[in-house]
Every structure is written in C-alpha cells, then in structure tokens.
Amino acid sequence: MLPLYHARNVTGERCMNSWLDLGVADLALSASDCDGMQPVGFAHNRASAATGEVDAAVDQVLGPEPPATAMHLSFVTETYPPEINGVANTLAHLVAGMRARGHSVQVIRPSQRETDQEQHLARLDEVVVPGLAIPLYRDLRIGVAGRKAIKKALSEFRPDACYVATEGLLGWAALRAAHDLGIPVISGYHTNFDEYSQAYGLGLFKPWVEQYLKAFHAKCEMTLVPTNTLAEHLESLGYARIEVFSRGVDTTQFSPLRRSQALRVQWGADDQTRVISYVGRIAAEKNLGLLVDAYRAAQRIDKRIKLLLVGDGPEVTRLRKEHPDILFAGARRGEDLAVHYASSDLFVFPSLTETFGNVILEAMASGLPIVAFDYAAAKEHVQAGRNGCLVPLADSDGFIDAVCTLVRQSDGLGAMSEHSREIAAALTWTDLYARLETLFRRYSGSKRSRDR
Question: Which of 195, 257, 422, 448 is 20 to 30 A from 394, alpha carbon to alpha carbon?
C-alpha cells in the first residue's frame, strides 16, 4: 500500500498562510472573491496583507466557533490550487465558500510536487495522497491511493457528505470508499474527458471513456453540471439525477479599472492598437489553431492588431517558434491576471471542449466583448450583438468572420464592453454557496446517521 499523508488542522488557527489559502484569488489562474458571506479581503497578497489585517479578516469570516448546524464535508479532487485550471479554480471557491459558511472541510488530493506540503488552515483537514504525472498532461497528476486508504481518511473525518470532482483513480477509490461507509456522494461533471481523448489522438477510446463516465456518475446521489445545455446533453445519454450548478465571478478582482497603460506599452500597443486576448491552457484541446487563423484574418483588416495568449501548456514551444509575433504572457494569477484581461480589448475563445469556461465570465467582468462558440458559458451569458458574438458550434469560418466583424466595429466595442460588465455584475458566488450548502444538507444523513 502506498503511504497516505495526512494533515489534521486546529480549528481557529490564525496565520497569514491560512488567509492566503482562503483568499484563493492569489492561487488560481481564474480565482475570484467570495461575495456576501465572503471576506472582503480575499484579494490580499503576500506583499500587501499585514498580519493584523489578515487575523481580523479571518475572524470576521470564520468566526470563533462553527455554528451548531455546521457539517463536515469532504471534497475529492485530482487538481487543486496552485495548479492552474478551471476545475482547480472552482474547487477552491467551493471549499472557501463552505468554510466561510462555518462548515469543516476535508480536501483529498494528489501531491503536486516533491516538496508538496499539506496546508494547516482553520476548519480544513487536508489529505495528500501520492500522485503520478498524466502522460499526455504532465503538469497534472492523478492520485494513486487505494480504496482502503481513502476509507481510512473518510472514517477519521466522518463527513456528512462527499463531493467528488474528478473521475480518475482517486475519484473512483473515494466513491467506493464512501459507499462502504454509507456516505452520500455528490459528483461534479467538470471536464469533457471524452472530447479530450479525440484532441490527443485517442479517439478510439472515446466510447470506453463515455461508458466509464456514465457508470461513475450513476453511482452518485446527484451530478452537478454548470450549464443547462450540458444537463440536457447528459440526460439524452441516459444520465440521471442531474442538476445545474453554475459558476460565479468576482467583479472586484476582475474589472475594467485594472487596465494598465504601462503593460500595453510593454506589448507595443498604443491607443490605436487593439489587443485580442485568450486566457487558458495552451494545449491541443483548446483549438488554438483556429485562434491563430482568426488573428491572421484580423491582421489583414488592421495590421496593428496584436494577439495575447495568457497561460501555459504543451503547445507553447511550438506556437512561439511558428508565430514569434504573438505575445506570450505565461501563467498569471490574482491581480496580475486581472490586469492582463483588462488591458486587452477583445476576448476570443475558440475551445470546443469546455463544460463551462470560467474565463468567459472573467473576461466579461473585465469589460471585454466576447467571441466564442455558442455553448457552455458563452451560450448562458453572452448575448449576441450586445456583448459579443456567438458562433454555431464548430463553424470555423463563422468564428473567423465574427472576430473580423468586431475588429471592423471599433466604435461599437465600447458599448459591448459596458454590457459585458453589466451582465457579469449579477454573477456572484454568494447564492451558489448557499445552494451548494442546501444540496449537501439534502443528502447528509440520507444514508446513515453519525454521532460526533
């Protein structure tokens, strides 16, 4: 049996690192503050947050003692900050939101590096299991702890309910262990792994992946999906007990006010230069070849146009070599990420493999018009002609035409920018945290009762 590393934390511990973890905006590529029940100081960073301010903020949010109705909630995920991706970002928000509402949270995740250390935070019990790099996705790791090890961790924490975010080896072990213990499991459908298989030349495995995912989620009390479209699609495939649980965005963190003229100067962009931006993994599944084609078409309209790619991934080296004029900003976090969004002029997202696409909301909150395919977050929140362009799914020519249309409409981008910001302003995390809490309460104790 591989070793299981277990860190148990003292409720009410006060330290700067605790607050920085709770303030996930500094840890994830796409992180936002919690609203309403949230600490207003989530955006503090190591350089600017004074220890006294951090202590006061933690006390304000968590309080000295958990409420009598507090639950114990386990989250199982194969990716978590400081890893940079939409799943890690969402999980960080859910964990922070449940802790802010007074619940004790356990996070079970793989080790991310040799020097990985468990966090010691208020109302957080973290379990780090051995991790192995994914062959075609080497910056992410899968957990390899067995069912018995996870069962031991769950038994010690005694959760009221368990949320399993990923369907890999760790998620499967957690699902079986939770069933053994009578712990209700809610799953999240965060990633279209069946579509990823095609992007990486493994299309022959797609039917098997589809069958496995369906069987996995069938064993859960409920599966949460981020959009109505995805819910309808999964139900058409025979999935049961599907509920829509969307995403929020922090409109203080991501704001047009973050625009930086100094950064634009670094990019070689003056007031007449429009910068097209993309934020996300630089990887095959993101369909970046189409983005480059759209950029070249836009350059034929206005040779001053620039393309900014924010993120990292296996395609960076090739794209740098083939397109030296593209601006590569690398992975960005927190306020730095927000500044990069706001300093561009148009957000273009060519991916066809998203379950949601948190970056769409962050770009909207930053006041950017959007060009994206008509599905996932864009279908839910982009209003064609008002704050961007929606393109029929997989219509590559239509996508390029949409980018060129907005490039030609320079006078109309200001109104679209305002509308993007206006729509995003209503998409906070507060109601989502309350709804998730309600879902946990619905199923906690549904299979067993537990004495503390």
Answer: 422
